[in-house]
Amino acid sequence: MEKKAIELYSPKYYYTCAFGGVLACGLTHTFVTPLDLVKCRRQVDPNLYKGNFDGWSKIYRAEGFRGLYTGWGPTFIGYSFQGAAKYGFYEVFKKKYSDLAGEETAHKYRTTLYLAASASAEILADIALCPWEALKVRMQTSTVPFAKSTFEGFNKIKKQEGLSGFYKGLTPLWARQVPYTMMKFASFERTVEFIYASLGKPKQDYNKIEQLGVSFLGGYIAGVFCAIVSHPADTLVSKLNNVKKAEGESTAVLSLRLMKELGFAGIWRGLGTRVIMIGTLTALQWLIYDYVKVSTGLPTTGAGGKEKK
């Protein structure tokens, strides 16, 4: 019996998109943990390593291969939760806002639609990510090992700082992730549209492999833009989760103090590493996400049309 196709915008469609998001974000962020580890440590202490290779070499000599993946547990959990909400709710909000605007208006102002839908989705996604991001940064940047396991680290923050310890970095996380995601989705959608227009044939005239190739290329281009827009906030998040507040000091006041201490050059420290990391990450995420979609009979993201079998 022929397998029934998933209906667009049905509950099953959104569940499939959320599942694609889990794989796209959870797996890729965990894979690049060694890059993230060196980046976070250099943001907190610029004199710790001369560069990526120096950092990896020193970590490997001191802690072995396992040390290179410090923080992989909270990374996998947090970004799996975030990916499910990010991709799932993006599709929900894109459809909702499109229906509210009407077909003609939605198409005319589609970039605005992509920006609004992705921002709405990321606000929710970061609430799920924030506790695990706090734990990840703490495990990666503490001079004395913070915890031997994800479970131990989670309970340690909970006991010492309560809920505020997990969410003190939420506002800076939004400042990093919301612009990042807006750029990620809007630039990806428009880049994919541009690629197909440049190729001279509609998307449906290409097979699945070719369409996935476009998804990968569009994802890498989008990732470079993402890294640039979100980098200052990323540096701030790394510092915030590694510095204790003074008595009576709010997160906003602490953030301003840290930004003054870092200065312009400090805020942009580690950008080169992050461009490589985020470019690769974003390309792989769109590739995995769209692979999940086409493997269930759904079209790849962007430029309209259905996949060719």
Automatic annotation (TrEMBL):
- InterPro entries assigned to the protein according to its UniProt record, in alphabetical order: MCP_dom_sf, MCP_transmembrane, SLC25A3/Pic2/Mir1-like
State one molecular function term (GO). Answer: phosphate transmembrane transporter activity
Name the predominant localization: mitochondrion
Pfam families in alphabetical order:
Mito_carr
GO terms (BP aspect): mitochondrial phosphate ion transmembrane transport
Q: Where are the transmembrane segments?
A: 12-32
Q: Per its UniProt entry, which superkingdom is the organism in?
A: Eukaryota
The identity of this protein, by name, is Mitochondrial carrier domain-containing protein
Which organism is the protein's source? Glomus cerebriforme
